[in-house]
Amino acid sequence: MKKQSWEFEYEIYDDISQLTGDDATLLNQARLVTGKAYAPYSKFNVGAAARLENGELILGTNQENASYPVGICAERVLLGTAATLHPEIAITAMAVSFNTSKEKSNHPISPCGMCRQSLLEYETRFKKPIRLIMGGMEGKIFIVQAARQLLPFAFTSEELIK
Ligand code: THU
């Protein structure tokens, strides 16, 4: 019997003033676009902003539905939009933020499991890691260098394309 472990590094920043200009811009866009979320059921507004390799920014927000499981997370709305507008251009970074009347938005949130799977597919498809910048409307920010790092033992296309 052997044991192995899974480790990943992430960066922790006290607030947005410690980020590089590009990362701060992306997080600010994610914060701003939370205002366009459609989340009347959870009242948990999520905003995502991504930078493409050509420098263009793409935004996404969560879109809920009266039939709850039909709702879509901000990250997957963004990925679908990016891949439709620019099917040949990779995403290099994505910022995610949230806003809600229920609690103070002063800490990072990280993508749900389904979004991690979608992010991994996108990284694989474009052969490029997506840096994830996770923060609330204020306060601490986490950065991981690739979405892949958040999904150990992932199911990938390698199992299907043989
Ligand atoms: N949500 C996102 O949009 N992204 C996440 O990473 C986590 C959750 C949305 C889904 C739902 O509309 C609301 O937040 C509450 O779960």
Residue share in helix: 10-25%
Relevant CATH superfamily: Cytidine Deaminase, domain 2
CATH topology: Cytidine Deaminase, domain 2
Order of secondary-structure elements: EHEEHEHEE
Low-confidence stretches: none
Cα radius of gyration in angstroms: 16 Å
Assembly status? single chain
Q: What's the number of extended β-strand segments?
A: 6
The name of the CATH architecture is 3-Layer(aba) Sandwich
Tell me the structural class: alpha+beta
Count of helical stretches: 3
Can you summarize the main beta sheet?
Answer: 6 strands, mixed
Number of domains: 1
Strand order of the largest sheet: 1-6-5-4-2-3
Distance between the termini: 30 Å
Which ions and ligands are bound to the chains?
tetrahydrodeoxyuridine
Q: Shape, please?
A: globular
CATH first level: which class? Alpha Beta
Mean pLDDT: 97
The share of residues in extended strands comes to: 15-25%
Question: Can you tell me about this structure?
Answer:
This protein is an alpha+beta fold. It has a single domain, classed as Cytidine Deaminase, domain 2 (3-Layer(aba) Sandwich), CATH 3.40.140. It contains 3 helices and 6 strands. The protein has a 6-stranded mixed beta sheet with strand order 1-6-5-4-2-3. The protein is globular and about 50 Å long. The chain starts with 10 loop residues before the first strand and ends in an 18-residue tail after the last strand. 33% of the residues are buried.
What labels describe this entry?
162 residues, Cytidine Deaminase, domain 2, single chain, binds tetrahydrodeoxyuridine, alpha+beta
